[in-house]
Amino acid sequence: MDKFLIKGGQPLKGNIAISGSKNAALPLMAAGILADGPVTISNIPGLNDIYTFNNVVRVTGTRVTFDEEKQSLNVDPAGLYHYEAPYDLVRKMRASFYMTGALLGAVGYARVSLPGGCAWGPRPVNLHLEGFRALGANIDMDGGYVIAEAPGGRLPGGSFEMKPSSVGATVNLVLAAVRAKGTSVIRNAAMEPDVVNLCHNLNRIGAKIHGAGTPVLEIEGVESLSGGTLDNIPDRIETGTFMIAAAMIPDSDVTLTRTSKKDLGSFPETFAKTGASVSYNDSDIRVKAPDRLPPVSIETTIYPGFPTDLQAQWATMMTGADGKTTVTDHIYPDRFSYVPELARLGAQIERHDNTAVIKGPQPLKGASVMSTDLRASVSLVMAGLAASGETEVLRVYHLDRGYETLEDKLNAVGADIKRVSE
Ligand SMILES: CC(=O)N[C@H]1[C@@H](OP(=O)(O)OP(=O)(O)OC[C@H]2O[C@@H](n3ccc(=O)[nH]c3=O)[C@H](O)[C@@H]2O)O[C@H](CO)[C@@H](O)[C@@H]1O
Ligand SMILES: C=C(OP(=O)(O)O)C(=O)O
């Protein structure tokens, strides 16, 4: 298992190119099996989650070819014959559950393993299942698998209101509904850029989805979708992560390229309160660390609110703030595995229910740390960069799920991170 050895205390200076979004890419890849011809998806990052999902899609007989150099992924569903996503793959990656909607839409039948819990507690799929039923699917459970079936091979379509709004369930229902016989309406639909991008791309190959980016999606089912080219968007979470890293490490001056403010929702407004100097251009964002970091409390909410995928990084930055900060997660109330690890680095941080309370400024000092999820792990790397001495971050395979060449990108702007394979 690989680990990182980080020598902290260096400012970050230079350019970092932002990769394509992991969370927007996965729905596009699932959408590939809905088309009548091959689709080519641009700006796909070389990440373990992408490789795993390639294998999930391949199980169905679909051909998936990834040109890593061009970051271009081709999905050819001509050989689609096996309508299943097995437990072995779904347990590695929850997004595999998108195969339920995609197979229902493509062939009217899916046998997909129920995803289990995850490192930060329960992640239910009740809305996905209730939504499929509302669109006309018969849903059964068998040996840990969901069996979803469209009577007569094609869903009739229907209406469903989500409470709460869910990114995963919206993606799954859109995939199931685009080739339904009738029209479907999803109320309180997710407005996250990942969902909007999926809808726009599906429309490019013949879908009729109205209202993307609003809480009401109306999907007129179409007989077929053509093959074609789909475009992935820059990773807004990677962008936010590096913006926070630049703001928390004194004297840093970092320009993020191949990204934009467009999909960041209200994050720039919140980020401005850190006092960091930020300039946004068409395709790059420059961040200079502030001289003094004030405490800025946040609460996660659905888009355009503060993303749950950035709360751990924000809490880490706030260990250096001048005063007391609270970080509250309303989406995933147990997503705090980083708290005891930051404490090992010397942070004054405590968890109370779904809130981390951080008392700063507290200089961090290198130690061995480990986390059990992706965003918590990247936060420990950032803490290691800010800390004095050497920090060892164990089990970096979590990072490899969602940050493309993280250590190379950071080392190129002055960090000192060594990957060690054990
Ligand atoms: C709204 C939100 O911020 N979603 C995030 C969530 O997406 P992900 O798709 O995993 O989660 P959802 O958007 O579905 O969940 C939003 C909320 O709805 C609840 N829920 C969801 C589905 C369901 O069937 N029943 C149910 O009760 C969840 O427990 C959660 O409290 O995690 C991803 C990975 O970290 C992030 O990239 C997404 O931005
Ligand atoms: C946890 C994440 O992904 P997933 O929903 O695939 O687990 C994430 O992107 O932070």
Automatic annotation (TrEMBL):
It comes from the Bacteria. GO terms for biological process: cell division; cell wall organization; peptidoglycan biosynthetic process; regulation of cell shape; UDP-N-acetylgalactosamine biosynthetic process. The modification 2-(S-cysteinyl)pyruvic acid O-phosphothioketal is found at residue 118. Pfam families: EPSP_synthase. The keyword Oxidoreductase does not apply. Phosphoenolpyruvate binds at residues 22-23. UDP-N-acetyl-alpha-D-glucosamine binds at residues 94, 309, 331. Gene3D superfamilies: Enolpyruvate transferase domain. One of its GO terms (cellular component) is cytoplasm. Pathway: Cell wall biogenesis; peptidoglycan biosynthesis. Keywords: Cell cycle, Cell division, Cell shape, Cell wall biogenesis/degradation, Cytoplasm, Peptidoglycan synthesis, Pyruvate, Transferase. Residues 7-410 form the Enolpyruvate transferase domain. Its EC number is 2.5.1.7. HAMAP family: MurA. Belongs to the EPSP synthase family. MurA subfamily. This is UDP-N-acetylglucosamine 1-carboxyvinyltransferase. It comes from Natronogracilivirga saccharolytica.
